[in-house]
Amino acid sequence: MKTFMKRMHGGQKGFTLIELLVVIAILGIIAAVVALNVGQFFGRGTLQAANTELHQAQTAIIACMADAETAQLDDAASAWDGSALAVEATSANVTYDAANYIYGTFRATYDVGQDGSIGAGNPNEWGDGITWGPDDNWVLTP
Predict the structure, then answer these.
(1) What is the largest CA-CA distance in the chain?
(2) E-assigned strands of the chain?
(3) Could you read off the pLDDT of 82-106 as tens digits, one per residue?
(4) Burial of 49 from C-beta contacts in 10 A (0-12 / 13-18 / 19+)
(5) What's the whole-model pTM score?
(6) Which pLDDT does position 2 carry in this prediction?
(7) How many domains is the chain partitioned into structurally?
(8) Is residue 3 part of a domain?
(9) Taking the mean position of all CA atoms in its chain, how far away is CA 111?
(10) In degrees rounded to 5, what are phi and psi of residue 139?
(11) Of 103, 142, 109, 140, nearest to 123 (Cα)?
(12) Which residues contact residue 99 at a Cβ distance below 8 angstroms, ignoring those fewer than 6 apart?
């Protein structure tokens, strides 16, 4: 069998051009399928990260109001990005700042009502892929 193959290829080793083209075509098809599916994961990951940030903002506001033992913030805030002195609750001459309950600032900004509810958000650094949804959370842009 070995001598037959040597005689057929004339003693040359390697792959034929057709074999190489078939392998490259198969790899191209696999790469195209993978690229389409990976794009979906990036959008979902961004959405989950944005909603996690929203949850952190809500938790910080609730913690601030709970520590102040009040059901109202001092004032409503628009475009809150997690910075200090914007969302506060005062009780017995002690001011509690919601920014103390988070680390850093947010990638989006939020409109916070005096009752502590978040009514709207601006995606800012999240990009064009997400928008504020009707259920007061982030959704993927259709």
Answers:
(1) 98
(2) 77-80, 88-91, 94-97, 109-112, 118-122, 130-132, 138-140
(3) 999 999 999 989 999 999 999 989 9
(4) middle
(5) 0.72
(6) 60
(7) 1
(8) no
(9) 20
(10) -135, 155
(11) 109
(12) 60, 82, 83, 84, 85, 86, 87
Q: What's the rounded Cα separation, in Å, for the pair 42 and 74?
A: 39
Q: Which two tokens stand for residue 66?
A: 């709970």
Cα dihedral angle (54, 98, 87, 140), rounded to 10 degrees? -10
How does pLDDT run across 7-36, given as a tens digit for each residue?
A: 665 556 788 999 999 999 999 999 999 888
* CA–CA gap between residue 60 and residue 116 (Å, rounded): 10
Q: Is residue 43 part of a domain?
A: yes
**Bridge partners, residue 91, by sequence:** 94
Residue 6 lies in a domain: no
- What six digits make up the tokens of 91? 């009780």
| Residue 11, in any domain of the structure | no
Domain containing 136: what range? Answer: 17-140
Residue linked to tokens 């509690």: 96
Cβ–Cβ < 8 Å for 113, 76: yes
